[in-house]
Design a protein that fits this description.
- The chain is mostly beta strands and about 500 residues long.
- The protein has 3 domains: about 30-60, no CATH class; about 70-145, Immunoglobulins (Immunoglobulin-like, Sandwich); about 150-155 and about 165-500, 6 Propeller (Neuraminidase), CATH 2.120.10.
- The protein has helices at about 1-20, 40-50; strands at about 50-55, 55-60, 70-75, 80, 90-95, 100-105, 110-115, 120-130, 135-145, 150, 185, 190-195, 200-205, 210-215, 245-250, 255-260, 265-270, 280, 300-305, 310-315, 320-325, 335, 355-360, 365-370, 375-380, 390, 410-415, 420-425, 430-435, 445-450, 480-485, 490-495, 500.
- Strands 3-9-8-5 form a 4-stranded mixed β-sheet, with no helix packed on it. It has a 4-stranded antiparallel β-sheet with strand order 10-33-32-31, with no helix packed on it.
- Strand 32 and strand 33 (about 500) form a beta hairpin.
- The longest helix is centred in the first third of the chain and has 21 residues, at about 1-20.
- It is globular, with a radius of gyration of 28 Å.
- Keywords: Repeat.
- One of its GO terms (molecular function) is zinc ion binding.
- This is SMP-30/Gluconolactonase/LRE-like region domain-containing protein.
């Protein structure tokens, strides 16, 4: 044994030396595996693009397999399209029972169809084979379209009074009532944010009493414009005040963006902080003037986040949508105008008239509610020319209507987990649902909230026959903000009924 160890001690260093010595240094041919740069070049090319070639070999960068959500909440009789996060033709298999009306595509991994029965939560295990391999488990549940929770009315679905005291009669301002709620958004923990007249309230998960208030210096009994700290008295514009906040959205870090309409600005609040750290549209927190440039606003309405972390905002009086790169308060792209100083209105693929709500799809495409033109436009990623129109038969149409193909004063937008489009058709007192589609026009609503499933009604709180009725769980009165939480639950701000409904 000692002899073997001595032999190894002598020969092993010589072997290593000879092996290293046999490898040419700085060999110019990157296709020779003995070249110093062979593996470096190989790895760089493989990671730089989705598909490339190296020395005659095809390199494919296969992203990890998965779906955009782990839990899917599907509404009864609604269209469904659940696709992998990175769509790719392959060989897929599924274990588990799909809800009635849905099928599984073994080539694309898509779950599609229209739900036909209510189900409990069902686990499905999906396997992706070559190219690449992966296994994921997702949960599907089919529910009806009745609301399950209400904010602002002490749990009552038949109240509509602003600032009521729990018995459907007037009361003082508190952390359990609302007055004309506009925007609604949820964070990754399940908490809800609701913007009202001059404040934004935060509600912990599954509770209808807010625990944090923005814009009122921590005072839940105030809803005044620009209050002085500790009072309900009007003051000047500051970092701690809000004046008619409208659209709100939450970023990946659970920070809050809000449109502060009365102060002509957008504020950004880090998570769990009621003091803003960034202001858009104004040079400082005490300014509130209007303008038409890359850094000023005239009646901003909504905000939406781009996949890269950039920010979109719609300005109704400037008839435009602006894009701000991540962290910047200077816009670099304008929709609806030829430049940052123009305010023209119009009816075409490149013009707006009073734009309101915004939402961005998973590909980075932008939907805009062009309210006065009674339509919604869709802009492909990177383009300022619309490629789809909803609510009109062409890009030149602007007539309002109440049929299943029409809109009347659309305001806010949202996308569900299948990327179906939801539109607050405010003047028609309903929220329309349009199936995911790439068609230029001819879109027909497939479902509706607020009209007892009647696609051709326009009255407020109807009783099922397109006639007026009392406030109830299935009616809406001038709906405003709409959004989905990460579990797929729909939130609708039922503005004139002074409540927010959760479905």
């Amino acid at each position: 044994m000692k002899i073997i160890r001595k032999i190894l001690a002598i020969t092993l260093p010589i072997f290593i030396f000879l092996t290293i010595g046999c490898k040419p240094k700085d060999l110019g041919n990157n296709c020779d595996p003995k070249s110093d740069s062979y593996f470096e070049t190989l790895v760089f090319q493989a990671l730089s693009t989705a598909e490339s070639y190296h020395c005659g070999y095809k390199l494919v960068n296969i992203p990890p397999f998965g779906y955009r959500h782990s839990n899917y909440r599907l509404y009864l009789n609604f269209p469904v399209s659940i696709v992998p996060r990175h769509p790719m033709n392959s060989s897929y298999s599924i274990q588990g029972v799909l809800p009635a009306g849905l099928t599984f595509d073994t080539t694309t991994g898509e779950i599609k169809g229209t739900t036909t029965q209510i189900t409990t939560a069902t686990n499905l295990t999906i396997t992706k084979n070559s190219p690449g391999f992966g296994i994921v488990t997702i949960t599907l549940q089919v529910v009806d379209t009745s609301p399950t929770m209400v904010y602002g009315q002490y749990g009552s679905f038949t109240c509509s009074v602003g600032y009521n005291n729990g018995s459907c009669v007037g009361g003082s301002v508190s952390n359990q009532n609302l007055s004309f709620p506009y925007g609604v958004a949820t964070d990754s923990f399940g908490g809800a944010y609701i913007s009202g007249v001059n404040r934004i309230q935060y509600y912990p998960p599954n509770t209808t009493a807010s625990t944090i208030v923005y814009g009122q210096y921590g005072n839940f009994n105030c809803d005044a414009v620009n209050i002085i700290p500790g009072t309900c008295t009007a003051s000047t514009t500051s970092a701690g005040s809000l004046s008619t906040p409208r659209g709100i959205t939450i970023d990946r870090e659970n920070g809050l963006y809000t449109v502060d309409l009365g102060n002509q600005r957008i504020l950004y609040y880090p998570y769990n902080n009621t003091t803003p750290t960034r202001v858009y549209g104004q040079p400082g927190y005490t300014n509130s003037g209007t303008g038409t440039s890359e850094t000023t606003f005239f009646n901003p309405r909504a905000v939406a986040l781009a996949p890269d972390g950039g920010l979109y905002t719609a300005e109704s009086s400037n008839n435009r949508v602006l894009y701000f790169p991540p962290g910047s308060t200077t816009a670099t792209r304008v929709y609806g105008q030829d430049n940052f100083s123009s305010v023209l209105s119009g009816t075409s693929e490149t013009r707006f008239n009073g734009p309101f709500g915004l939402v961005v799809d998973s590909m980075g495409g932008l939907y805009v509610a062009d309210s006065t033109n009674n339509r919604v436009l869709y802009f492909p990623v990177g383009s300022t020319t619309a490629s789809r129109v909803y609510g009109q038969t062409s890009f030149s149409g602007l007539a309002p209507g109440s049929a299943s193909t029409n809109l009347n004063g659309p305001t806010w937008l949202a996308l569900d987990q299948s990327e179906n489009l939801y539109v607050s058709d405010s003047t028609n007192n309903r929220v329309f649902v349009f199936q995911k589609s790439t068609n230029t026009s001819g879109h027909v609503a497939v479902a509706v909230f607020g009209q007892h499933n009647n696609l051709n009604c326009a009255v407020q709180n109807n009783t099922g026959g397109c006639t007026g009725g009392t406030v109830n769980a299935l009616g809406l009165f001038a709906p405003a903000g709409i959004s989905f939480n990460e579990q797929g639950q729909l939130y609708i701000s039922d503005q004139t009924n002074n409540r927010v409904l959760v479905y």
